[in-house]
Predict the 3D structure of the following.
Amino acid sequence: MSQEKMSLEKKTKLIYSGELMLFAILFLVLATLEILSVIGKRNIMLTIFNFVTTAGGTWMIVDFFWVLFSKKRRAKNSLLDKILLVPLGIYLITFDIICFCKMTSFGVFPEEQDSFRRLMMGIAFYYIGAIYLFQSIYHYFVPVPSLIKAIEDAYKAEQEEQEKEKLAALKDQEVNKDEAVDAEVEEKKEEKDL
C-alpha cells in the first residue's frame, strides 16, 4: 500500500466515524431532552411518531433478514450493524403496540401514559445513540465493506488519473523531440544550402 492510499483510507474512515459520532451525540441529546420533558408533547406528533417508528422497527427486522440471506447485500453491509438494530426494532414495535392500545378514542394521553412514553422514547434514543457511538469507534478499525470498496475505487481512479498524466507528459516529450529533430533537419538543410 502506498502512502497516498493510506492517507485516503485514513481520511475516509475518519470522516465516516465522525459522521457516526455526530449522530450518536444527536441521539444522546435527544434522549436526555425527552426524559427531562424539554421536548414538547403534541398529541398528533406523538401519534405520527408511533406510526413512523412502527414502520422503522419493521424495516430494521426485515433489513436484518435481507442482509442475512442475501450474499450480494451482505457484501456491502456490516452484519453486526444489522444485528444491533434488531432489538431496537422489536422494542419499537412493542412500544408502539402498547401506545396504540392505551390511547383513548379522543387521542388524549393521561399523565401516566405521557411519562411512560417519555421514558420509553428516551430509552430508545439512548440505545440508538449507544449504537452510533459503538459504530463510530468500531468502523474506524473495521470499515464497512461498502466503504472499503469506495476507498479502492477512489484509489483506482486516482491511479488512472496519474497514468493519464504520465502518458500526456510522455506525448509532450515525444512532440518536443519531434520538433527538435525537425528543427535539426531544417538547420542541416539550411547549412547545405549555404
